[in-house]
Design goal:
Blueprint: E1 2-5, E2 18-20, H1 23-30, E3 36-38, H2 41-72, E4 76-79, E5 88-93, H3 95-106, E6 115-116, E7 121-123, E8 125-134, E9 137-145, H4 150-172
Parallel strand pairs: 4-9
Antiparallel strand pairs: 1-2, 1-3, 5-7, 6-8, 8-9
Length: about 170
């Protein structure tokens, strides 16, 4: 059965696309949720009249996704998690936790369903996570799991040691 999509459906197409789907899928899912209409002659004619408006909305969505990609690409966020011996987590880090961390730390709104993990993160450390922003536009973010602020503490200790060495050298002179 041919239908006209009224919005983006992941894996099927975007607004205004005419696709072929199973009749049961169309009648039981797409039509009741107002995600598609039947591809009749009248609806196809209306679609041709709306193509310009659809193209404008599509351009805005792509521009927004590209700007969000630029803001996210190469950034890193920290997700706090309880880490046991040998770097294994108690529980796991999910897409929702990563989306919340991005919102809190970077101030950017990302839908948790767009975070592509494959499987939950169960090991502490740095993980590259892909975020699908819109159709084929994706951004890669580094997620630090269970990593505390230790590097900053180590830098502070090094600075204190350097100050002590300089003070002892000055006293020796």
């Amino acid at each position: 059965m041919k239908v006209i999509l009224l919005g983006e459906i992941r894996g099927k197409g975007g607004e205004g696309d005419v696709i072929d789907v199973a009749q049961g899928y169309a009648e039981n899912y797409l039509f009741p949720k107002k995600l598609a209409v039947a591809a009749t002659k009248g609806n196809l004619r209306q679609l041709e009249e709306r193509r310009n408006n659809i193209a404008k909305r599509e351009a805005v969505r792509i521009a927004d996704a590209n700007s969000l990609k630029e803001a996210l690409e190469g950034k890193s966020v920290t997700v706090d998690a309880k880490v046991g011996d040998e770097g294994v987590l108690f529980g796991s880090v999910t897409g929702a936790m990563i989306a919340d961390a991005i919102k809190d730390q970077l101030g950017l709104e990302v839908d948790r369903k767009r975070v592509e993990l494959g499987k939950p993160i169960k090991v502490a450390g740095a993980h590259l996570v892909t975020i699908s922003l819109y159709r084929d536009i994706r951004a890669t973010v580094t997620v630090l799991v269970g990593v505390t602020e230790e590097p900053e503490v180590e830098e502070a200790e090094v600075v204190e040691e350097v100050v002590e060495v300089v003070e002892t050298e000055a006293a020796a002179e």
